[in-house]
Automatic annotation (TrEMBL):
The organism's place on the tree of life at top rank: Bacteria
NCBIfam families according to UniProt: aroB
Entry EC no(s): 4.2.3.4
Keywords: Cobalt, Lyase, Metal-binding, NAD, Nucleotide-binding, Zinc
A GO molecular function held by the record: metal ion binding
Organism: Candidatus Walczuchella monophlebidarum
Residue ranges of every copy of the 3-dehydroquinate synthase N-terminal domain listed in the record: 63-174
Keyword Metal-binding: yes
Enzyme class name: lyase
UniProt protein name: 3-dehydroquinate synthase
A GO cellular component annotation in the UniProt record: cytoplasm
Keyword Magnesium: no
Domain 3-dehydroquinate synthase C-terminal: 176-319
């Protein structure tokens, strides 16, 4: 596994040791070096990176607080001011060491400073390893709206090192696993079965192969539709239209959901919509619902909360004029896109979510 790489059309994804060797050799080509971390990764991950890539001891470290709420324009302006103070130029390199908040926002900050400096991603969470750090999407939140500000831009390279998974709680690992489930649902029935069967008893040695396969699936989709203009890339949004609405509502509360937890609930709702609109069989919807609700926590969503979630959904980036478009499952492993879904159907999907959760509890 350590020798495997994925060559995308814009950059190389390295797995484990080989990427660090490549990075060490590339670093003298940049005019100055910067590492962006958060308060968690600076304590738990930074020293591992510096031991493996000694040249990075020359780098200036930028550290932001931990959490989704830090994915904002204020931190972007602060990072840009620090880059300016350190005389960064267009040949400088920003290394994003962290989870999705760091790789998303760090890539965006690098893209806008001086109209673009170099950056690369070293994701430290499972979620970032299989989703946030790959594919070329960078961005920040607008208030509580997910990823409303951003650009497509690509890192110089990407290093995925499962060592960092040792720093994660079980909750964080489960959050990342939701994206693994998604890849199986939209593109590979066999992958879905593998994740489903091993999800509650995942062995340490399994992670490399699952992460590698997830990146292969995503790269195949992104290669055909890099900027989401043709439509195929929209299938990566399965579960995210409703999931982002749920995540955005709970983000400013005392008990925010992890991204993967919200997306799992979104996938249950959107698989129900797939069935309701005569796309997916009821049997497969029930299989999806039972699998995900046995792993991810359900949140009580009353009428008042639902109406607020619907407001977030109506502001989703995938909305066209007044219509909300979804990617829906035809069957497990096959996803189609550009389905217009009414508000009434969306509301009914939340009622189904509650019923399905009650059945799991029983």
């Amino acid at each position: 596994m350590t020798e495997k790489v994925i060559e995308t059309i814009h950059y190389t994804i390295f797995f484990n040791g080989e990427g660090y060797f490549t990075l060490q050799n590339k670093l003298p080509n940049y005019s100055s070096l910067f590492i962006m971390t958060d308060t968690h990764t600076s304590q738990l991950c930074l020293q591992h990176l510096l031991r493996l890539v000694p040249y990075l001891k020359k780098a200036r470290i930028f550290c932001i607080p931990f959490g989704e709420k830090e994915k904002n324009i204020q931190n972007g302006l602060d990072i840009c001011r620090k880059l300016n103070k350190e005389n960064a130029d267009r040949k400088s390199l920003l290394i994003n060491l962290g989870g999705g908040v760091i790789t998303d926002s760090g890539g965006f900050f690098a893209s806008i400073f001086k109209r673009g400096i170099y950056f690369l991603n070293i994701p430290t969470t499972l979620l970032a390893m299989v989703d946030a750090s790959t594919g070329g999407k960078t961005g920040i939140n607008l208030d509580n709206l997910k990823n409303e500000i951003g650009v497509f831009n690509y890192p110089d390279l990407l290093i995925i090192d499962k060592h960092y998974l040792k720093t994660l709680s079980n909750r964080e690992l489960k959050s990342g696993m939701a994206e693994l489930f998604k890849y199986g649902l939209i593109a590979d029935n066999f992958f879905w079965e593998e994740i489903k069967n091993r999800s509650k008893h995942m062995h340490w040695d399994d992670w490399n192969e699952f992460i590698y396969q997830a990146n292969l699936i995503k790269n195949n989709i992104v290669t055909e539709d890099p900027s989401e203009r043709k439509g195929l890339r929209k299938i990566l949004n399965f579960g995210h239209t409703i999931g982002h609405g749920i995540e955005s509502y709970f983000l400013p509360t005392y008990s925010p959901l992890r991204h993967g937890e919200a997306i799992a609930l979104g996938m249950v709702c959107e698989s129900w919509i797939s069935w309701k609109m005569n796309v997916l069989s009821q049997k497969q919807h029930e299989e999806i619902s039972k699998t995900l609700l046995s792993i991810y926590p359900f949140r009580e969503i009353n009428e008042q909360i639902l109406n607020k979630i619907l407001k977030y959904i109506r502001q989703d980036k995938k909305k066209l004029q007044e219509d909300i478009h979804f990617s829906l499952l035809r069957e497990i492993g096959i996803c189609t896109y550009h389905h217009k879904v009414s508000n009434d159907i969306i509301k009914q999907s939340f009622q189904s979510l509650k019923r399905n959760n009650s059945e799991i509890d029983d």
